[in-house]
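Researcher: We're teaching a course module on how sequence relates to structure. For the next exercise, students receive a sequence and then see the predicted structure as tokens, so they can try to spot secondary structure elements on their own. Here is the exercise chain.
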Amino acid sequence: MLQDLRHELESLNLAASGSRQTVELDQSRVGRLSRIDALQGQAMNNAIAARRHNKLLAIEAALERLEEKEFGYCVKCGDEITLKRLELDPTVALCLGCSK
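Model: And here is the predicted structure for the students to work with:
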């Protein structure tokens, strides 16, 4: 599941890389409002890319915990993380008590 999620996020990042390009300043081709819209779109795409990057880091950490046979245990207190919680988000590193 983690490998599939990582592959999906990497594919989305690759597909969206063009939407994070620098917005052109040439107002003879693009009006001021259109440029503002483009800048807002670029900012949103950059924020999405940052969230994907953070999720990829969480996936890598979860895969590392899996390799070290520590997957499913809270990194803070060592208690077991409930299966239901892991099913919702397999990258979760904290039990419910420590996440508060």
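Model: If you want an answer key for the exercise: Residues 70-100 form one domain. The first helix runs from residue 2 to 15.
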